[in-house]
Structures are given as C-alpha cells and as structure tokens.
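Reviewers of the previous submission asked for a worked example of the structure-prediction workflow described in the proposal, so we include one complete record here. The input consisted solely of the amino acid sequence. No template or homolog information was supplied to the procedure at any stage.
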Amino acid sequence: MLPATLGIYGGISLVGWVISGSGAICLALVFSWLSKLKPFPGGPYAYSREGMGDFAAFWLPGVIGFPFGANAAIAVAFVSY
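From that input alone, the workflow returned the following structure tokens.
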C-alpha cells in the first residue's frame, strides 16, 4: 500500500525509498556483524543483554521499541482509513 500512497509525490518518493532501504541494509549489516562476533541465540535481545545487562535487555525493547512501532502502524492505519 505504501508505493501507491507515495506515488502521488512523484520522484521525490524514490529518495524516501532509498533512505529507508539504506537504513534497513545498515541494520542488517549490524546484526550480521554482531552474529559473527557473538553467536548468541536470541537476536536483538541477546545482544542488548550482553551489552547492557538483564534489566535493560528486558525493558528497553518493550518500552522504547514496541510503542513506537505500534504507534506508527496505528497512525498509518488510521490515516489510510
């Protein structure tokens, strides 16, 4: 649905796609690099636990990550509706 929504803005929407794609690739490269350094099962939780301890690894993704992701999804659904 996003390409159809951004299509009305013309060529500038391609800049947004390039920036978003570059960010996704950078994030994938970071996790690739971390998995080579410390091959822990558990993904992002395991790496944050190793770096910041149990308390931060448990609370930070839930307190920071989920609300922003959920709020963005809710906002897009609300505006699209």
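The chain has two domains: 1-37, 41-81. We consider this example representative of the routine output the project will generate in years two and three.
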